[in-house]
C-alpha cells in the first residue's frame, strides 16, 4: 500500500487523476476487523506528503465516508475516526475542512452511543482551536447549536450556556439560516431560561416556537404546554398578566389539560391545594425544586399568585387573615407582600402598627370602569361592603371578558 501511494505521489499525472488513484488505493483496503491499522497507516502516509496537499484533501473526506459506509461495526469506525483526528491535529492549518469533518463524524458516533457530553466536547474543542480560520459562519452556528443540544440531553445547562451565547453572536452573520437549526436554537434558549427559572422569558419563547409552521403539530402543542407551565410559575405581576392574556387568547390552549389552572390564574382566582396538586403532575424536577430559602419554586409561585388574587377581592386585609389564606405564618405572609410591593408587582401598602395591608384596586387606574369604592374608610356594615366589592369585581370581570372577545375577533379577522 505504501509503495502504491509513493508511486502515485511521484507520478506526472495531474492533481485530479492523483486524487482518483489515491481513492482507488483506499477502496482496495477491505474495511474489516484487523484492517483498521492499515486504513490508519494509509491516512498517515498521505499526511506525510509535503507537497501537492490539494490532491489529498478530498481523499481524507472520502476516508470518513468509506469507513462509515463499509464498517463492520460502530466500534471499528470509532477507533479509526478517533485515530485520524489525532493524526490531523498537528496539520489542522492545512487540513481544516477534513479535520472538522472527522470531528463531526466522531460526534455522530458518540451520539449514537448516547455519550452526549463526549460529543459536545469533541465539537467544542474543534471550534475553540486558534488555528481554525476557514470555517463558515453557517457551519459555526450549526455546530454551536449541536453542542448546546448535546449538553441539554444530559441536563447540563450550565455547560450549554457558553456555546448558546456564542451561537447567538454568530447567528446574525449566517448567510443561509437553516429553519430547523434555528428552531433548535430558539428551543435551546427557552429550555435554558426555563432551567434557570427565568420563567416569564422562557414562556414567551416557548409560545413563539409553538407558532412556527416548520415545527410538527405535536411539538407545537408540547411547546405551548411548556409556555403555560412557565407562565403560571413566573412571578405574579403586570408582565405575567400580559403573558397570561396572550396564552388565554390562544384558542389552542383550550385543548391542554393545564387549561383549567391557566384560566384560574388568568382571572386572578385563588388557587386551592387540589389545583396545585393537579398542576404539579405536569412539572419537571426543577419546577418543584427548593430554592436557597427552602421554599419550592411551585409554592412560591402559588403564594404570590394568591396574594395577588386576594388583592383583587379585598381593599384591605389583616396580615393574620392573609396568612390564613396563604397557609403561612403572618411574618412570612407580610414578607411576600412587601417584596411584591417593592418590586412594583403589587399595588398597596402595609400598615405594620395596625397589622393591615391596604391594596390599591386596579379599578382605581381604569377610568372607564368608574371609581372604586373606598372599602377601607366605608361606614357600611360588613354585608354592604361585601356587596359593593362583589359588584365592582363583577363589573371588572365583565369588562375583561368583553376585551378578550374583542381580541379574539380581531385575531380571527387578521
Automatic annotation (TrEMBL):
A GO CC annotation given for this chain: COP9 signalosome
Protein keywords: Cytoplasm, Nucleus, Signalosome
Pfam families: PCI, PSMD12-CSN4_N
PCI domain residues: 197-364
Entries under InterPro entries matching the protein: PCI_dom, PSMD12-CSN4-like_N, PSMD12/CSN4, WH-like_DNA-bd_sf, WH_DNA-bd_sf
Localization per record: Cytoplasm; Nucleus
Gene3D superfamilies referenced in this protein's UniProt entry, alphabetically: Winged helix-like DNA-binding domain superfamily/Winged helix DNA-binding domain
SMART domains (alphabetical): PINT
Superkingdom as given in the UniProt entry: Eukaryota
PANTHER family linked: 26S PROTEASOME NON-ATPASE REGULATORY SUBUNIT 12/COP9 SIGNALOSOME COMPLEX SUBUNIT 4 (PTHR10855), COP9 SIGNALOSOME COMPLEX SUBUNIT 4 (PTHR10855:SF2)
Annotated family: Belongs to the CSN4 family.
Name used for this protein in its record: COP9 signalosome complex subunit 4
